Amino acid sequence: MTLVSSHLFKPCLTFVFLALFQSHTTFSALILSLRNHRSYPQHPRPMFQTNRTTCALFAGTWVRDDTYPLYQYSNCPVIDAEFNCQMSGRPDSGYLKYRWQPLNCQLPRFDGLVFLSKMRGKTVMFVGDSLGRNQFESLICMILAANPQTQTQMNRAMPLSTFKFLEYGVSISYFRAPFLVDVDVMQGKRIVKLDDIAGNGNAWRMADVLVFNTGHWWGYEGSLRGWDLIQSGGKYYQDMDRLVAMEKGLRTWANWVDSNVDITRTRVFFQSASPDHYNPNEWSAAATATTAKNCYGETEPMKGTTYTSTYADQMGVVNEVIREMHVPTYLMDITMLSELRKDGHPSIYRGDFSPSQRANPQKSADCSHWCLPGLPDTWNELFYTVLFY
């Protein structure tokens, strides 16, 4: 988060809020116009091309496989306490024994030594919210499992953390940017700047592989909301239609990618929304008004190959923005396969939870992030496949 000196924020807060409310009516009309005259197309499944076949990587089923997980939590020192479910006392382990099976092909087995060899001297950077951090830590663990004695170096900081495999000159980084666009603090107010990404983008320029994600933070309300004001088109708003805000931010991101990425050097990926599981009506016909509104006690994936439309509008925006970009950007459509994994969340098994939080799943359960080992390992198997095959 960038601290901006107060002299750059010339309007006093009274003027800002006056401008905010004066422009609200005009902006509301814009929202209604976009809502009423625009439809977002359904997102087509990305296709994985090989010389011999076409593989729909993201359509398939979860199958039991006792050769999983790909690593043990006790052998991976980088897993944050909030993702380390087994260390935090989760009593079941069946959720670790599932492999993603695409409908018409087999995923190659992840090989950490192959990853290091092919990426020698290069940098992979995950950019986005904490789901990107989930995947960042997963990838490190998967690589370490193949070469546990290799010399490494870890630097944890905010907003950039980096893990280096020194022998290979490979860096795996995570840059925290929940909205992708810049968030500045001015006179104590957090301002999401929908038209500005230069501050964040400076940290991404030299990466060889960029994996972006955003989604959850655009919908947060109340104390979870990540801003006090939104800046767009030179005006300030206390709030706006979240889908409109997300699209504006994504177009700023897309313009940055088109203007700054050298396609002879850098490959760009965008990861679709990672679903949460707070609504048991999505997977249980027997759910009632008194059913716990969380994933606590879930130990098996859902059946089937389809998912609810919770993220359909967001996916429509993402699909449209990426389709209009000049720089080739591969959409990793992990939403459906992740939707089926109601069993994969930390729930109350987070190392940073207090005894009182653990005793109250109804209020505290984390059904947004994912256990490690767990589902993000599959995201990285798919990433590995698209990157090298």
From TrEMBL:
**Primary location recorded for the protein, binned into one broad class:** membrane
Sequence ranges assigned to domain Trichome birefringence-like N-terminal in this UniProt record: 54-106
Reply yes or no: does the keyword Methyltransferase apply: no
Membrane topology for this entry? Single-pass membrane protein
Compartment(s) = Membrane
Q: Which UniProt keywords apply?
A: Membrane, Signal-anchor, Transmembrane, Transmembrane helix
Q: Where does this protein have coiled-coil stretches?
A: none
GO terms, molecular function: O-acetyltransferase activity
Sorted alphabetically, the Gene Ontology cellular component annotations on this record are: Golgi apparatus; membrane
Answer whether the UniProt record assigns the keyword NADP to this protein.
no
What sequence ranges are listed for the domain Trichome birefringence-like C-terminal?
107-385
This protein's source sits in the domain of life called Eukaryota
The entry assigns this protein to a family as follows: Belongs to the PC-esterase family. TBL subfamily.
State the protein's name.
Protein PMR5
Species for this entry: Gossypium hirsutum
Gene that produces this protein: LOC107954184
